[in-house]
Each structure stands twice: as C-alpha cells, then as structure tokens.
TrEMBL record, chain A:
Mode of membrane association: Multi-pass membrane protein
Entries under InterPro entries matching the protein: CPA3_Na-H_Antiporter_D, ND/Mrp_TM
UniProt main location, coarse: membrane
Membrane-spanning segments: 6-24, 31-51, 96-113, 120-138, 144-164, 176-198, 218-238, 259-282, 288-307, 314-333, 345-365, 385-402, 422-442, 463-485
Alphabetical keyword list: Cell membrane, Membrane, Transmembrane, Transmembrane helix
Organism of derivation: Methanobrevibacter filiformis
Pfam families: Proton_antipo_M (PF00361)
Cellular component terms (Gene Ontology): plasma membrane
Name by which UniProt lists this protein: Na(+)/H(+) antiporter subunit D
UniProt cross-references to NCBIfam families, sorted A to Z: PRK06277.1
Location of this chain's protein in the cell: Cell membrane
Automatic annotation (TrEMBL), chain B:
Name of the molecule in the record: Na(+)/H(+) antiporter subunit C1
Major localization class: membrane
Cellular component GO terms held in the UniProt record: plasma membrane
Pfam families found in the cross-reference section: Oxidored_q2 (PF00420)
Subcellular location: Cell membrane
Native organism: Methanobrevibacter filiformis
Span of the signal peptide: none
Keywords tagged on the record: Cell membrane, Membrane, Transmembrane, Transmembrane helix
Top-level lineage group: Archaea
Transmembrane spans: 6-30, 82-105
Mode of membrane association: Multi-pass membrane protein
Gene name, Swiss-Prot/TrEMBL: mnhC1
C-alpha cells in the first residue's frame, strides 16, 4: 500500500481540475467534491509508512547496476547516497496531520456549499488545489518541491479571497501577492544557496552533507541561506512582519475559506519549520531567532486583536498569535518541546476552523462583523453559542480540552529546558487570549441585542452547525486521548532531531 | 577574460536590487509588478548560474556519447529543471497580479497603490 502515498496529492489535484471543468453543473460539483473530500482523510489511514520515489529512481547506492557504470568520483563518494528523484516521506507525523487536516478540509468543503447560492466549480478547484499543495508540502522531502507547492498554496489563498466577494477583498489580495512575490524569490534564493553548496535540494541529502562535514555549517553562505529561508518561512507562516496581512486575508474570506486558509498556514508553518529544524539547527542562535519571532507574533497579534472591533479581524489575529506557540516549541528545540509544538499545530488547525466557521454563523445571520453593532445572540441560537464558547475556551487553553494539553506540554518543556521565563510568558499570553475571547463572546452573545440589528430569515446553515459539533467532539476527544497522538509524534521527532 | 559565472551572478544581483527598489518604493501598481518580475528573473538567473560549467556541454545525453566524458563535461542540469518550474510559477503569479490590478483600476480609477490601499 506504499503506492497510496502519491495519491494523497494526485487525487485532490485531479478533483480540482475536474471541478473546474464541471463548473456550472451545481449538483455534480457538490456531490463530486464531497465524495473526494471524504476520500482525502481516508487515504493516509490505508497507506503504509515509507518512502515514495517518483519515477522509481532510488538513490544510487540502492541501484548497484547503475552505480557500477558510473565514474569513481560519483560511485565512491557520498554523492552515491543522494536522492535522484523527488521523494515523498510518509511517517506517523504525516499520517496524523493529513488525517486531521483532511477532516477539516472536508468540513470546509461541506460548509462552503451552503455559503454560496450555487456550487462553484472554480471555488472547489481552489479548495482542492490548496489541499493538494499543503499535503504535498508535508510529504515532500525536497525543499524546492516544497517551495513550488508553497507558491501554489499562496496563489490558491489569494484565489479563495478573491472568490469570497467580501468588501475590499481585492485590495487585501493584491497586498498579500506583492509581499508574497518578494518573499517567494527570497526563499528561492536561499534554496539556491543550499543547492550550490550541496548539489541537491533533497532535505535528507542536505542534512547528510552537513552531518558528514561536506558543508561547513558556519560558513557565510550557509548562514545566508538560513536567513533567506527563515525570511521566506516568516512570510509563508504569517509571522511578523507579515502577521497583519495574514490576518487581513483570513478576515476577507468566507467562514469556510477562513478555516481552510488557517489550516493551510499551519501546515505550511509545520512543513517549513521541520525542514528548518532539520537543516539549520546546527547554526548557533538559529533556535533563539525562532523563539524571538514566535514571541513577537504572539505579542503583536494579541495586542492588535484587543484593539479591533471587527470579530473576523480579531479571530484572524488570534489565529496568527496561536502560531507563536508552535514556533516556541520548535525554538526550544528539545524532543518534548517540538512534539508539543506539533501537537499544538494540530490542535490549532481544529480549533481555529471551529471558531472561523462558528463566528461565520453570526455573519450569515446578521451580515455585520462590528462587535459594537451586535449582541444578544445567545437567545437566538443558544446551542451554537455554547459550542463556540467551548471552542474559545479550548483555544485559550482551558482543561481538559486539546489545546490545554498541548500548551501544558509546551510549558513543561520550557521548564525542563531551563527557560522558566518562556513558561511564564506562555501562561500570560494564554490569559490574554482568554480575556480577548471572553470580551468578543460577551459582545456578540451576552450584551443586550441592539434594536436595529436584523437577523436573516434563513438562519444558520445546518452544515455549519454540524461542522462546529464535529470539530468540538474532535477537540474533546484529543484532549482526553492525547497520548494516542503525542506518542507517535514524539517518536517521529526523536528520529529527526 | 570575463568570468561568465561572476558576471551572471552580478547581473542577477542587480536584477534583484532594482526589482526590490521598484516593488517597495514605487507607487504605481504596474511598476511594482514589473519590479516583482525583475526579482523573480533575478532569482531564476541566480539558480541557472549555479549550474554553469566553463566549457561545459548542454546536459542532454545523445546517442554515441561516452558516459564518463558526458559526466565530466556536461553542465549541471538540476538548476535548469528547477528554473523551468520556477518560471511557470512566476508567470502565474504575474498573471494573477495583473488581473487584480485591472479590477482595482476599474474600481478606483487609479493605479496608485497609496490611493487604492490607503490604510487597508
């Protein structure tokens, strides 16, 4: 079943292309998209762990026939270990992430069909292309391949925002593209420096070259490569100085789109974060740099969230701020902290999707996103309000929900690593997140309903309510049975550090 | 004698600096987009330069060629393959940016970034 590995990317791509062709045929688009969205999280459960070499080109050292025909300066040197083909690596981490991301993607696709009057094949194309791109990034062991799919994911994000028909969406999309078109080539040049030094863009080959002293990790070119790739990572993940535009992009998308965009960002953050850890952790101060930017993301995003009055912007900033916790886990750099960071990433995909879809229900109802003009909604849909409240408490790290477990692990890892300041910092930030969420929840649901607030007759789409409930159940289950997730991730992290 | 690789590297550096200047400091959207195209082409030229081999041959193995001679004399083909992909991605990004610029021009009647984006 190792042949199933590339299908995790190929099936969403084919689905995306077919949806584009089928645009206009509403029912066909809807049912076809939902069927494929169900298949996406199932494939990783069926696939075996292993490596997939595209074209069947194994490393030279595993192909004795070809190796013997090559000159000695290739066959008898470390070059023989290098990978000739693009390689996909499927391990426990990829299995867990693709499975849960697949569920979130399915719920986003499911919800999106109720957001639009007609099922759009073009919108479906964008969603599935993005799904394929981020899965490919997580599977790929090739940093250039990751870059290509990152660029595709960035274009898809812009497309989803453009297709959302919200106010000023074109302006936000242009801003994001301009910044991306600077960040992308900078990332590419960093990859180019690695290629120049090692002769390969395969991450395992680069790590091999560094560990076997084929490359001097303290050379200026290697350091420059780190800085450029790190800058690209900041852009791709939405860390400072890109946190404002990232949150703006989230707020311009439809609720299902916002959930998907945030999931894309987390997956990109994790994919490049793992690559950076594997390649550049030998550089002194590289982990400190990750900590600094992650802490900045938390401080700036949460500070900006407090000052906003648009609940979609607030949620966008909170989502970016939560990324900082993942970065702190990576920055501390121990097996426990990286595991905690990855578990936090998984939890964030689920919880922010819940909140984006949950708060989206208010937008369906009122077409208003200014918290000063809203209120009293708990009397209209009390069950939805309670589910959103639990989701918000989960994001803030209230026990026994999933984010509590990952934040507790992060705090424990900071204490074990001898950095109690970071543990205190994370606790303070969680409290501020809790306060910000409470303020928003009060404004939307608990304060008296403004007299001029009109509610849509059609009410909240059932698909949105179902999606919120499913995500909430996952959050509770992950909070209780977290060991089933953290143990395989812990073993995976032990293998890469 | 001019070092081809060094000159190509300097040219790519110049492309990137000019592009960055245009993308950051110029106000007109089209000029910004042209600047971004400069940055992308600079990055592509940089990658191509990495695979340059003085006196090397095109990395296409033709019938009758000696494998060892080819391995010793051909240019490194990987950067060329990467650049080909990168060009496609860059062209797609430029097309989307130009399309957005057209829509924004129709909406605002100007190509000035400061007027279109304002404090958004």
């Amino acid at each position: 079943m190792i042949d199933l590995i590339p299908l995790m990317v190929i099936i969403p791509i084919i689905c995306a292309l077919l949806l584009n062709i089928l645009h206009g045929k509403n029912k066909t688009v809807k049912y076809f998209a939902i069927i494929v969205a169900i298949v996406v999280p199932i494939i990783p459960l069926l696939a075996n762990y292993g490596l997939h070499y595209f074209g069947g080109h194994v490393p030279l050292i595993e192909n004795s026939g070809l190796l013997s025909s090559l000159p000695s300066y290739i066959s008898q040197t470390p070059i023989a270990n290098f990978h000739l083909a693009i390689t996909y690596s499927f391990e426990s981490l990829q299995k867990i992430f693709i499975f849960f991301f697949g569920i979130v993607a399915f719920l986003a696709v499911f919800t999106s069909f109720n957001e639009m009057k007609r099922s759009s094949g073009a919108y479906g194309f964008l969603m599935f292309m993005g799904i394929a791109a981020v899965i490919a990034m997580l599977l790929s062991d090739d940093i250039f391949h990751m870059y290509i799919f990152f660029e595709i994911a960035a274009l898809v994000q812009v497309g989803i925002v453009l297709a959302s028909n919200t106010e000023d969406n074109y302006e936000a999309a242009l801003k994001y593209l301009i910044l991306g078109s600077i960040g992308g080539p900078i990332l590419l040049i960093g990859i180019g420096f690695l290629l120049g030094m090692v002769g390969s863009v395969n991450i395992t080959d680069i790590v091999f070259a560094v560990k076997n002293n084929l490359v001097n990790p303290l050379s200026s070119v290697f350091l420059l490569s780190f800085i450029l790739i790190f800058f690209g990572w900041l852009y791709s993940a939405g860390l400072p100085p890109f946190h404002t535009i990232k949150s703006s992009i989230y707020s311009k998308a439809l609720p299902s789109g916002g959930a998907l965009l945030q999931a894309f960002s987390v997956m990109v953050f994790v994919s490049f974060g793992i690559a950076i850890l594997r390649i550049f952790s030998v550089i002194p101060y590289s982990k400190i740099l990750i900590i600094v930017f992650s802490a900045l993301a938390m401080i700036l995003s949460i500070t900006m969230a407090i000052t906003q009055t648009d609940f979609r912007r607030i949620l966008g900033f909170l989502a970016v701020g939560e990324l900082g916790y993942i970065g702190l886990g990576f920055g501390i750099g121990t097996q426990l902290s990286v595991t905690a960071g990855l578990f936090q990433a998984l939890n964030e995909i689920i919880i922010t999707a819940l909140l984006f879809i949950g708060f989206g229900t208010i937008y369906y109802l009122t077409k208003v996103s200014d918290i000063r003009k809203l209120g009293g909604l708990i009397g209209v849909y009390p069950k939805t309000a309670i589910m959103i409240l639990i989701g918000g408490l989960a994001m803030a790290g209230v026990p026994p929900l999933n984010v509590f477990q990952s934040k507790l692990m992060l705090i424990q890892s900071a204490l074990k690593a001898g950095i109690p300041e970071l543990a205190i910092f994370m606790i303070i930030m969680s409290i501020v997140t809790f306060m910000t969420f409470t303020k928003v929840f009060h404004s939307l649901y608990l304060k008296p309903k403004p007299r001029d607030l009109e509610l849509a007759e059609e009410g909240i789409p059932k698909s949105a309510t179902i999606s919120i409930a499913v995500l909430l159940i996952i959050s509770i289950v992950l909070g209780v049975l977290f060991k089933f997730i953290t143990t395989p991730i812990f073993n995976f992290v032990g293998g890469i550090l | 004698m001019i070092d081809t690789q060094l000159m190509a590297l300097l040219t790519s550096g110049a492309f990137i600096i000019i592009g960055l200047f245009a993308a950051i400091f110029l106000d007109n959207i089209i000029k910004k987009i042209i600047g971004i195209a400069f940055i992308e082409e600079g990055a592509n030229l940089f990658l191509l330069t990495l695979g340059y081999k003085p006196g090397g041959v095109v990395p296409i193995f033709m019938p009758g060629m000696d494998a060892k001679w080819f391995a010793a004399n051909s240019a490194y083909p990987l950067p060329q393959a990467l650049v080909l992909t990168s060009i496609v991605i860059g062209a797609s990004t430029l097309a989307v940016m130009l399309a957005i610029a057209m829509v924004l021009y129709k909406k605002h009647g100007t190509l000035s970034t400061s007027e279109i984006l304002g404090d958004k």
